[in-house]
Design brief:
Length: 257
């Protein structure tokens, strides 16, 4: 009888732990917004290692509830899988294991940067990517402090009609995010996009724009994708590369923090 009671207490304690955020100072709850398109949302195959949770790493799910983080973090499309978010969080947490890392997944696959502005609508997913991200993030930061935004997007802008204006649009996007949250210095880390086919002449133009913005805007950083591999579709990072990409985001974030 005593063993049964002890077991019940253990189970109940676990349920409490995973049903609500810990009662700690907001300064110890660090929130990160994950935004962009499919390579941020993740399309890698989910493996057992991707489902192991850490009691210090949480995610704001589709229902806007805090739950232990595990892949897939995103829910933009049924094909959502392993992206850079989880490994990013794990690396950040290692810097302060007393902190709680809270992720707010907001990336939407296939989106051009033009839909990342107020009122813009993405017909493929029937969502408003920017408005949804702002709404989710503002609700999430009631629980803690926004520490950074990581952004991976640009593949959908790699065409002659859009690549030339990408730099200005990216600068405007960063300013909008910072204004929305009233945090001019909030770090904004952006990733290089990959051209796995090696045939898109516009990819270098967009990547130069991303690098230029990252190196000329305060509290920004640029993440390279050199050596990373696709999952066989010549579009999306495989699981191992997505995890490595997250580690690179964390390293850059920590260098500009």
């Amino acid at each position: 009888m005593k063993k049964t009671g002890s077991l019940f207490f253990i189970i109940l304690s676990c349920q409490i732990t995973f049903a609500q955020l810990p009662a700690v100072s907001k300064k110890k709850i660090h929130i990160y917004l994950l935004a962009g398109q499919s390579n941020m949302a993740g399309r890698g195959v989910v493996e057992p290692v991707d489902t192991i949770t850490n009691p210090h790493i949480w995610m704001f799910n589709k229902d806007e509830q805090w739950v232990p983080a595990k892949d897939p973090l995103h829910f933009d499309k049924p094909v959502a899988g392993v992206g850079p978010g989880s490994s990013f969080a794990k690396e950040i947490w290692k810097q302060d294991t007393t902190a709680f890392i809270l992720l707010v997944p907001c990336a939407v696959g296939g989106t051009r940067i033009d839909v990342w502005k107020p009122g813009a609508y993405d017909s493929a997913t029937k969502t408003h990517p920017y408005d949804d991200a702002i709404r989710r993030a503002k609700k999430a930061i009631l629980s803690g402090e926004l520490k950074g935004i990581i952004w991976h997007q640009g593949e959908s802008d790699c065409n002659p009609a859009l690549s030339g204006s990408y730099e200005n649009k990216l600068r405007e996007l960063i300013q909008r995010f910072r204004t929305e949250f009233n945090q001019p210095p909030v770090p904004f880390i952006m990733g290089e996009i990959a051209d796995f086919k090696g045939s898109n002449k516009e990819t270098p133009i967009v990547n130069l724009a991303i690098r230029t913005v990252a190196t000329t805007t305060p509290h920004c950083g640029f993440v390279t994708v050199t050596g990373l591999l696709d999952k066989g579709d010549q579009i999306h990072f495989n699981s191992a590369s997505a995890r490595e990409l997250g580690k690179r985001y964390a390293a850059v974030f920590l260098s500009v923090k």
